[in-house]
Amino acid sequence: MKLTEITLRHLKMPMKAPFTTSFGTVAEKELLLIEAMDESGITGWGETVAFVAPWYTEETVKTTWHMLKDFLIPLLLHKEIKHPDEVSALFASIRRNCMAKASIEGAVWDIYAQQTKQSLAQALGGNKQRIEVGVSVGIQSSTAKLIDQIKEHMHNGYKRVKIKIKPNHDVEVVRAIRTELPDIPLMVDANSAYTLNDIKILQQLDAYNLLMIEQPLATDDIVDHATLQKQLQTSICLDESITSVEDARKAIELGSCGVINIKIGRVGGLTEAKRIHDLCQNNNIPVWCGGMLEAGIGRAHNIALTSLSNFVLPGDTAGSSHYWYEDIIVPEVKAISGYIDVPQSAGIGYAPNRAVIDKLTISTEVYRSSTI
Ligand SMILES: O=C(O)CCC(=O)c1ccccc1C(=O)O
Ligand SMILES: [Mg+2]
User: Which residues cross the membrane (predicted)?
Assistant: First the structure.
């Protein structure tokens, strides 16, 4: 295939409820949509997951636009590509900027799946018909509110609940949840809010039968996590620390975690995500698919990835209506009793909702050979 035209759109989407973590709050989601067209007129879609500020990783909505426009699109336009795995090799000269790379690689995977008349899940080697999903609940203004939300999610059948913790908002909150809900599948995510000086606090969490503790220590650390894991009974799950299959290999060798959360954007695309999945499978490390408050296009990519066999733990891909008044795809993603059906039609299996996309778009640029 050759990409002949790429359209970038910058969208602003109001969220039903603001989402708060240890690093900040997202009340309105901004994202870029990548619509790529090949020489036969097939279009594929990708979505960026960077936020407006560099608080989860160093990327932002603006840096993803810059990288796409000035580096990644010029590298891809009119290049002959036989398989989407070649895209990450084409981008090898560009350091990091994983979210920008992943967004356009995702559009190439979508086109490839359509060309070969398979679902994106099949093209990736996935074999599940449906996936199990959980939900991630942000920090709330009171523990009572948090517990009410958890009860509602369990009532709706979500397979596990993740809550966000930070210093002074951890053991007491978990204890309160466990007093009311002793048996629910529960985990916590610290988004790097602790250091090894907090080991005593993190060890107290061992008493509450948590599925795992996600990313307690620094975003770029695997060494201290290995030290911590030796002194914790609960498995550590790494999120921010794993940006490539090489990071995953080193973390596994050091014993830094028992579980890995795979996010397509954080690791630079579906090809790298699949490599991490395969490495973890060979090393008996279970994985699950993380979330970045994606709109429908990114959510569809997550569903396809989660159909791979070592995604044995429920991920953070909740249904569209958990986040959005109106999603940008038809049909919207529906989670029923904690399951999402993996679409079987060619490509990502959801159609872009152009009316909604147009309404939410604040700027658009089209790239063809003549404009570069
Ligand atoms: O519902 C989702 O998409 C997952 C939400 C979530 O936990 C999250 C949201 C924004 C940034 C980082 C994270 C995270 O997994 O650490
Ligand atoms: Mg996380």
Answer: none
Q: Is the CB of 240 under 6 A from ligand 1?
A: no
Q: Is 164 tagged catalytic?
A: yes
- Collect all residues with Cβ–Cβ distance below 8 Å to 350 and sequence separation of at least 6: 296, 297, 300, 329, 330, 331, 333, 343
Distance (angstroms) between ligand 1 centre and the Cα of 304 equals 18
- Tens of pLDDT, residue by residue over 326-340, are 999 999 999 999 999
Which residues fall within 8 angstroms of residue 280, CB to CB, at 6 or more apart?
Answer: 248, 252, 260, 286, 287, 310
Q: Ligand 1 centre and the CA of 94: distance in Å?
A: 26
ipTM entry: 0.99
Question: In this predicted structure, what is the pLDDT of residue 370?
Answer: 54
Q: Domain 3-118+352-371 maps to which CATH number in 3.40.1280.10, 3.40.190.170, 3.30.390.10, 3.90.1150.10?
A: 3.30.390.10
pLDDT for 19-52, tens place per residue? 999 888 999 999 999 999 999 999 999 999 999 9
